[in-house]
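User: Sequence in, structure out. Go.
Assistant: Echoing your sequence, followed by the structure tokens.
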Amino acid sequence: MAIPSFVDRVTLQVQGGNGGHGCASVHREKFKPLGGPDGGNGGDGGSVLLRVEPGLTTLVEYHRQSVRRAQNGQPGRGDHQNGSRGDDVVLGVPDGTVVSDADTGEVLADLTGAGAELVVAAGGRGGLGNAALASSARKAPGFALLGEEGDGRRIQLELKVVADIGLVGFPSAGKSSLVAAISRARPKIADYPFTTLVPNLGVVVAGETTFTVADVPGLIEGASAGRGLGHDFLRHVERCAALVHVIDTATYEPGRDPLSDLDVIEGELAAHGGLEDRPRLVVLNKADVPDAADLAELVREDVAARGWPVFVVSTMSGQGLNELTFAMAELVRRRRATQPAPEPQRIVLRPEPVRGGGAEFTVDRQGDGQGGHVWRVRGTKPERWVRQTDFNNPEAVGYLADRLNRIGIEDRLLELGARAGDAVAIGGEDAVIFDFAPQVEVGAEILSRRGEDQRLESERPAAQRRRAKDAEYHAARELEDDDE
């Protein structure tokens, strides 16, 4: 199956890189086996960004490859070596790309202006090493924090062509020919309906003003309701500063004339909505045909009576094109004078924190479907702390308990009637479930206080033996002195 060259709507799976794990390490030197913690931090995962690239006009690159993943952060190492950060993945998109969540339909951003950026999948944060976790009360942590997973989501990219002038009209009215006549664009042109299947962009220079012109294909009666190609391409006129009606004055189709064509297209634009404030120009095209020139002169006053400037042109002979391009340039200058210059932005999507029941968490009692119940704890901090914990390390579990107690989760559970042995779940579908055991020390066995290494506080056995020998030697010398 052939891949089209113009794609204006794609669905993309993006995944930020995972953060690297922190390192639990103890510094060692000759004659100094316990020199203190020196584990480095893990590196942050890379993010997936969308960035507006002015030279792009299609989303076809993401039609070919619809999954993009950023690089993971590297784990920390001993000797205070932090892991490197994962590389970002920057995806170029055309100016005028609307980004929405593919699952919920929520519009995340409307990217316009060169350099505008959107972070659609942030990388996970790297875990702290035991050197960063050391404190006066925890001098030698025997654990480190795990790196967090990067964000993942399905997004939809929808391109709305950004052009200063939008050409609208029936198929074969001469829109593509007009773009080719006033610019260097060379669209496909033929004398049958729906020759143009994608919007064509052309750059026009009129005096000191340079602007872009786009023809919008597929507009017929009923286009706003999905008939023909109008349902797919009407959105491309939403960003145009002005609209130009291109009217075919040489059509031989029964029931059509310039005024009725104009009314039909205006009706479709009104049904689409949001275009009432755009200035209009009317082009009576194909004046090189004798009968068409007579018809154009006949209806010119009726069209002008509607308050729109009218131009009789021929893309074949060039009649009226110079006046038309300068009239377009004047509309563009007026529009630009009223619009502030856009500034490139960098937008980062962050979920809203869960609030209520406390400053940073909620506690609810829920049935487990088997006649029992579970206490479910939700909140940004506790859920993140659980993801950072290595549950194979008792000391790390004790550190997690300290953190949860510090923000009052244990007290809140007791207030609500929780008893020892009740099931407590922290998180949503992937929650960690454990038995509630209030005021129970769960640190490592070698510790007197959670997270404190007594080996750094006491003398080493070799030093104790040497001290004992010194004491015996001095005691023996004292006895010899007394005998003398």
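User: And one key feature?
Assistant: Residues 166 and 243 are 5 Å apart (CA to CA).
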